[in-house]
Amino acid sequence: MELSLHRLRMLRELQRKGTVTAAAASLHYTASAVSQQLAQLERDVGAKLFERLGRRVQLTELGKLLTEHAEEILGSVERATLALEEAQDARTVRLTAGVWASVASGLLPTALNALAGEHPGIEVRTRELAPEDTAEAVRDGTLDLSFVIDYSDSPMPWDAGLERAVVAVERLHAAVPRGAVPSGTASLDDLAEHPWILASPKSHFGRAMRTACRRHGFAPKINHEVEEQSTAMAMVGAGLGITLVSDLGLRLLRPPGIDVVTLTTPLLRTVSIAYRSTAFRRPALHLVIEAVRASAAELGLGTESALP
Fold first, then answer.
1. Residue 171 to residues 227, 242, 244: CA-CA distances in angstroms?
2. What is the separation, in whole angstroms, between the first and last Cα of the chain?
3. Is the pTM of this model over 0.90?
4. Region for residue 179 given its phi and psi (left: phi exceeds 0; alpha: psi -120 to 50; beta: otherwise)
5. Which residues pair with 245 in a beta bridge?
6. In the list 1, 23, 102, 154, which could disulfide-bond 248, CB 3.0-4.6 Å?
7. All structural domains of the chain
8. Which of 22-31, 115-124, 236-245 has the least mean pLDDT?
């Protein structure tokens, strides 16, 4: 009997998520592809590994047993990979990183160019995900590292099996239609009467901004709920409301018709790189972290964390 690591990883994720659809989304496959691979795993084993209970699935006793061993096997593979990297001085390594728009455009180009010049054997590939999804993809082994964010008013729940290294701390600014705040500075509560443009509370950003407003004594009047920051900024430029945007976001998005207002009580956003605790000794990982920190420093972004 030969067991595929790829299929074992899918079984482990099925056990964690409880549905084929959720497991597939976590691993970035279609549900049909995961179903086919799990069916093949059952054929490889010669036994049922899970049963469907409505929309959810439940592992059989054999499925639970195999999942327990899968955790050990996948952990052993990661430790073996680390040992090989150390033996080879970590100079020929491929890492996959989870990114989102503002870090992919604002921090990574300089960092990856510098890394390629100094350590050409380290190849970093990227995959764009929503910020709230990247840490989980590291935990399940889909990614080697990912960029994650925390807001001073709304820290993200953290997985004890992951470590994080702070690489940049940004300020948030109010983006307003030109002339809406002539002074150029304001407290957040000064902006309470303006119409707002924010992401939905499904996103970490949307939740964090609502929390910040509540802590300043008001609930924002949200006229437009949009997920893309570029859409929000375009709507601000058209005079439809105000939004909040980070330092990196301003480097990427600054359409005409917008004034940037400095908040008198700073709202901070901490950008970190998350990685599995078992990967702490990977030299290549630390070289990537240092390259990103250097890129952030060139932009004037420090590393004094907003984390509690």
1. 20, 16, 10
2. 50
3. no
4. left
5. 173
6. 102
7. 5-84 (1.10.10.10), 90-308 (3.40.190.290)
8. 22-31
Average pLDDT over residues 231-260: 93
> Which residues, other chains included, contact 183 with Cβ-Cβ below 8 Å and sequence gap of 6+?
none
CB 7 within 8 A of CB 41: yes
Q: Coil, strand or helix: which one is 223? A: strand
Strands (E) in 39-135, as ranges, are 50-53, 56-59, 93-99, 122-128
Instruction: Encode burial over 57-91: b for 16+ CB neighbours within 10 A, e otherwise.
Output: bebeeebeebbeebeebbeeebeeebeebeeeebe
Collapsing DSSP states into helix, strand and coil, what is residue 100?
Answer: coil
Compute the 3-state secondary structure of the chain and give helix, strand, coil in percent, each to the nearest 5: 45, 25, 30
Q: Which amino acid is at 97?
A: A
- Cα 87 from Cα 69, distance rounded (Å): 27
